[in-house]
User: Fold Late blight resistance protein homolog R1A-10 from Coffea arabica.
Amino acid sequence: MEIPSSSNANCFDFASYDYLQSHLVSSSTSTSCFDLALDTLAELEKEPYYGWYFKYLNEKARLMKTCFLYVKKCRRRRNHEALLEPDREDRCNIMSENLRRSIICFRIQEVAIRMIHDLQPAYFQYIHSGRYLDYANIESAITRSKEKIKMFLETDLKKSCAAIFIDYYAPGDPRLVMDLIMCLLETLDWNLRVGELRETIRNRLKLLRNLIGFVTMQGLECSQLTDLLTYTVVAAGRLISVCLFYHDEQVANRLESEIYKLIHEKINLFDLQVRETFVHVLTASKKQPRPSYAFALQKNEDHVVGQFVGSLRDYLMDLLGSYASFQVPVKDQILRLHEEIRCLGILLKQEEKLGDEMKDLIGAVVVSDVAILTFSLSVNEIKEGLPKEIDLAVFHLHKVLKYMVAEVAHNYPLKSPYSSFNYPRPNELGCMDSFLENLKELARCDEADDSIGFQHHRIQVIQNDLVFLRSFLENIKEQRYQNGKLQAFWSHVMEAAYKAELLIDLTLVGDKCEDSLDAVSRDINLLKIDAPEIHNGQTQRVNKTSLHIPSQLAAAMHDEDLVGLDDEVETITHRLTRGSKQLDVVPIVGMPGLGKTTLAHKVYNAPSVRSHFHVHGWCRVSQTCSKHSLLVQLLCSVDSRSPDEYLKEDENNLANKLRQVLLRNRYLLFLDDLWDVEAWNLLEKSLPNDANGSRILFTSRYQNLSLHFKPNSEPHHLRHLTDEESWTLLQRKLFGREDCPPAVSEVGSQIAKLCQGLPLAVVLIAGILATTARDSWLEVAKSLSSIVLEDEYCMKALELSYSHLPDYLKPCLLYFAAFKEDEVINVRRLLRLWISERFVQQAEGKRVEEAAHDYFVALVNRSLVKGVGQRTVGGAKACLLHDLVHEFCVKKAKEESFLYDVHTWNPLGLTGPSNPHRVCVRNTRELKIWELTLIFPNLRSLILFGQDYFKHEEEDLGILLPKLLRVLDFRSLHFRYNSFPIEVVLLVHLRYLALKGVTYIPSAIANLLRLETLIVDYPSLGIELPSTIWNIKTLSHLLVINYHGVWRRGFIFPVENLEVSPDLDRLDTLNLAVDPSPQSLQKILRKLPSIRRLKCMEHRGGSREATRNCNEILEFDSLSQLESLYLYGFHGCGFKSPLNLKKLTLSYNAQPWSEISTIGKLPNLEVLKLLDHSFVGEEWVMKEGEFPNLRVLKLSRLKFRNWTAFSDNFSRLVKLVLHRCKELEKVPSCLGECETLEMIEVEGCLESVVDSVEQIQQEQIDMGNEVLKIEIHSISS
Assistant:
């Protein structure tokens, strides 16, 4: 088809326009103009660049069509006819009401026709040009259309249509009213800021719409809906009349104030008369003869019922949020009703599992009864206590739903919360300690008396019995491994403790568990009675079992497998044969399978090493070693005698013989696979130090082991193979000296790369490939980690490391199974998760965060976890696991019932432990969380991984969360409208919550009284906190993860009535967005006395322009615990910092260099980062004595030319970073005198800066300091 010329297109367009104009005159009832506009916009909406604009116009075209139809069909109400709203004075005395409505309709049609006139040339060109849009023409067309829409909204809709909605009866078409509400919701989404107010008005309008849809589906006649339709349309009219359809900060504030007033006065769904209207139509709908609900489902009307049930849940949450002064028992009753409605929602999603009779019962009776019960709640009753009949009704509803759940359970893998389950095995005593600590906290907590009431005595009895049993288990923890009766008793106690914890937690969320709790209490008491008898009968002490790697593993790798490590051999050889004459140790450390033993053997047998030492001996230590065994091995290797000659001798004689052999000889002893300091302590007295250069070479998985017996020793960290070295080793094992066949070269190289530099993995996979057809090698590559882990040697090597961990570290290691393979994990995120999971026990004199960091360092020292990137102060920024270790963690976590890993969501095909504690879901695209709630009702931790670009609708996910969750990581789910998933506020046990994109936190967050960590990823705006946030006294971390390169966002605290709000005295870490006025900041900081790490950014919606200079002083010196401060924005503001500050980062502060002396006087400052125009001016002149403890200095994107300093300014400096300081001419020459300097990084600076840095390096070398390294990344011209 030819592409029509623009003139042809215009002719066609004008013909179409003339046709519509004439059609409009002859038939003012026609909707053809709207239909044509909608068709045109629907097609243009597919265009990727401008589709967003066309979607906006499409929504407004639907609104115009709906308003047009409504105005045409409605009829006039009189004062005596008005039922819920008083009629207005008739202001239309001049013209008849028919003429008035016709004129309104004509104007709406006119807007649609002119919009078609503007867009059709672009439309035809788009259609006939292969979907290519002329952007130059379309922008002006969109602009004209938006102007016409704006005029329609401000005049026809806001004035004329709003008056019609208020003064006229709704037409006899409920669906038209439902469409009107839907269009109004879309309009509000464009005009109301994201926040709790918008969610409230959306939920109330949706409830009205969904109620109309539900009773209409039930068969209720339109004449019986008059009151409901009238109230709904009047509410819409009131809302439209206050709307302002243009964007401005002051306009937005005024609009929200008007709407806030409106929802409390005119759209108050808790009003008695409104609730009576709801109950009236629901009661009438139950009496209607109607087709079966099963038939309605076949017509795809099931979503109507599901949406209505969802609105009932929102109504109850709105009710709870509106009245904060509920008594706790009343609140629990309402939450119980919410729980039953939640269960009903789950059942509705399972209609394919229900028979027609059950569907009819749900759709026709149960939903109506639940709605009537919900709308029967009055505010006065809520404040004073619910009447008995309400409580009975909730109880009856529970019984009905329990029957229905049983019906569904026949066809679905449902699990009862009380069914048997495999409790997590790692660190069982630590888990019991955590449970006992929770019971103590519960006894102290004010909520105990109200929440659990008469259960309190039961809980106290359980606590006392478990304290006794905990002590008993401690006594038998070593014996149980080799005693079946003790192991069985141990398992019974742990299962009873886990069940008790489960039932108490369920009690706190409103479940009635008296009988079950009594039964568990009796079981625990019986176990307490049985304990002494069992212990008396099993007094034999046994050693803890240990795993021994078979001798073949040591031989799995040979000297010929050493590829590309010549540099390592040379380094170790030098350390053995050179240096101090004193006896010294040379540790080779690294993860299992890295080739430590192979390297050590290579060096030990090297001719240069053999000739250097007079005596050589070696032994294999292993986990459990005896002094006798070690001495026998060493003596046999030294003098080549048979072990039989030494086995009968006692330890003292053997020790003396070894000492005599070594005395006055230069000796080399090789201790293979050292696990702890015990082996050294056993041998130390037999190792003479004759100052002749003797050495002890040993291998270990523990990086810092040598520091325990040689404090100044430096371990040699064996590196991984490069990809090329791994490929060379694989070829050598597969083909010997022959070349690799070209057909498998590419896949072979890929397999070698996947081994991630681990020689043992290369050797083991070579053995597998040698017996695998070459056309199947690609399949091996796809599952390499699991294949290698199936090998006995590899599995036992990792099992050995795991079994040797202290119990408290085992869950910390297995938690890595929750993360993706090869994922670089933020260390602080990991530590916060460990703390929330209660893996970390607080050590005396340390904060729990410090104890968690010690746990992490212990795993790194054991070569199981690798640190990635160093913080300027405080260890690694991130970490990762080798694929083999990760795969081991995944398998072990499943085996120990610690964590269930779901890769593909298929609820009917899920196989795993019953009622697991922790679940991570890898692919959230197909996820329905309500299904997860059915399958795993007792879930405590849920971590979701998904596609960042994939936006979820709450309706798609069916946010019905397991009610016992403690950890919830939703950071991979991006909800539409950046809304807060309201179901979260019912999770009263929640300690850790991570969300993505939300820009407000609802007031009901105060229900989460145990919340410790709240994280929001990538918000588009500042996150507004409600005033109720001050009531969550457990909060420790309020964090925002920002996109790189955008204005930083943070939490916006409410500042009203702070004098009566409690302090957040546990808050440790905060990202704060604040108006820079000192008064606002001081009000907030006074409530946060324990802050250690504070990122404070200027709130751009504040009262001061972000770019204006000011003389304001931001005072942080009252924060006595503050160690790290990051200021972002606050152009020209000064600040006061506490003397204990260790780290300071400034960005976009634009202060003069003269003000930096205040920072220089901070006595404990170790890290200073001056970024992005934090200081302005051409010269920075440092004063003598400033920055006495500075270790790291980073300067980035600063426009200064000259830098003058004194040597004492850098007396402790370790690292200097210069980044894109494009005008700086050179660095201070006195840096050459800095003895502590180790690194200078330069990027994007002048060549003269690079020259001055190289000169400093040369000065350092001349002083004998060869430690200093410089990195030059680019040079600015």
The mean pLDDT is 79. DSSP finds 44 helices and 38 strands in the chain. Residues 330 and 385 are 6 Å apart (CA to CA). The longest helix spans residues 135-167.
